[in-house]
Amino acid sequence: MEFLWTIFEYLVVVGLVLVLGLGAAIVFEAFSRRFNHAHAEGHPIFEDPNSLKQVPCPYIFDPAEKYISLIIPAFNEEHRLPGALDETLNYLQQRAVKEKSFSYEVVIVDDGSADGTKRVAFDFVRKYTVENVRVILLGRNHGKGEAIRKGMLHSRGELLLMLDADGATKVDDLEKLEKEILEVAKRELGDSPDHDSSLRISDIPIAAFGSRAHLEERALAAVKLDSTDCQYPVAFICICFQLCALLSGVKLMVAKYNNVQLHFMFQRKWYRNFLMKGFHLVVLLAAGPGIRDTQCGFKMFTRAAARKLFTNIRLKRWCFDVELVYLCKWFRIPIIEISVNWSEIPGSKVNPLSIPNMLWEIGLMSVGYRTGMWKIST
Domain holding 126: CATH number? Predict the structure, then answer.
């Protein structure tokens, strides 16, 4: 018994040392990021592969030259990027034909990719010209948050939309976010008795967040398989589905079976729901209530909102979205949360190893802002 007590004491001491060490590391890292260097950064240069000339880079404080900018961060997206860009640019071109006042640009930020992402991106610049498609090269990998920050700071749109390189959200859903922003802007102008009639939508700070919260409420997903179209035995098909479910962390139920069709039902296992709810709780404590889905990669900002937010943001990786929520609340920028069509795309960069980094960044943010080490520029 005395031996077990000694082991317990030892584990307690080790645990305390680890907690204190982690706390000290968070404080030190937060202190090292206390200065915001956004205003002092050098501007990147856009390369035009058609003329081999360098194009001057705009800045977020310059007047808007386009109606909308789409910022796409890309890290090793050689295979998924072409499909997403084809869909995006087809939509933008068709809309530009229908609406003569509609102008756009797509800004691809290559976050230090080691594959052919750069080549793919410049192929689209050659096809659509540097006026419509531009590429920012970061040289080395900084993280999704930093890639989006760079793209936002050097875009020309009145509206700025960030979206993922995998095309998980349909690009035409931007119209939902755009519509809500326009309605809020009209109300803001209408409620102000002394508003300037020359104000544009880009002058009013508003943020619209795409949301997948409505999808999280659906615990079940159904799959119907016609066995007559399949060359494999039914038993083999069932085993394959069970293995896929086990590896994916979901529960599989054969809801219905006959000689022709198999009906499968997939349900998230309890620990996946537990992790999801646990992360939401941590976000709630760090950034406060109000947003059900902070991590959807489909968000739109007016130029005025982007100017305030992305010159202050410090987190560089997955949890920069949480910092955006915090900053929106600090600046009292209206946040609209809108359901979007989202689908799982193979090849996600988020994995269980991302969770410690997310918690680390949330810890940094909490310490940085609550101790006053991270000053917000107004």
Answer: 3.90.550.10
The encoded tokens of residue 282 equal 């941590």
The kind and range of the H/E element at 338 are: strand 335-339
Query: pTM higher than 0.85, yes or no?
Result: no
Question: 299-302 and 335-339 as β-strands: parallel, antiparallel, unpaired?
Answer: unpaired
Do 253 and 321 lie in one domain? The reply is no
Looking at the structure, do residues 53 and 169 belong to the same domain, yes or no? yes
* CA–CA dist 312, 165 (Å, integer): 24
Give the number of other Cβ atoms within 10 Å of residue 353's Cβ.
Answer: 7
195 shares its domain with 163: yes
- Residues 360, 245 share a domain: no
Name, in order, each residue with C-beta under 8 angstroms of 174's C-beta and a sequence gap of 6 or more.
68, 70, 161, 163, 298, 300
Tokens found for residue 239: 């085993």
> Do residues 336 and 378 lie in contact, with contact meaning Cβ atoms separated by under 8 Å?
no
Burial of 363 (0-12, 13-18, 19+ CB in 10 A): buried
Q: Are residues 64 and 137 in the same domain?
A: yes
Q: Are 58 and 156 in contact (CB under 8 A)?
A: yes
Residue 141 inside a domain? The answer is yes
Residue recorded with tokens 């084809």:
86
99 and 58 within one domain:
yes
- If asked whether residues 147 and 177 sit together in one domain, one would say yes
Q: Is residue 307 part of a domain?
A: yes
Domain containing 342: what range?
46-212+293-370
Please give the chain's pLDDT, 378 residues, in tens: 666 667 766 777 777 777 777 677 777 667 677 776 555 566 677 878 887 778 888 999 999 999 999 999 999 999 999 999 999 999 999 999 999 999 999 999 999 999 999 999 999 999 999 999 999 999 899 999 999 999 999 999 999 999 999 888 899 999 999 999 999 998 887 765 555 556 688 899 999 999 887 766 554 444 444 444 444 454 554 545 455 544 444 454 444 444 444 444 445 455 555 566 666 666 766 666 778 888 888 999 999 999 999 999 999 987 899 999 999 999 999 999 999 987 766 656 565 666 777 788 888 888 889 898 999 988
Domain count, the chain: 2
Please count the other Cβ atoms lying within 10 Å of the Cβ belonging to residue 70.
Answer: 27
Q: Do 87 and 145 have their domain in common?
A: yes
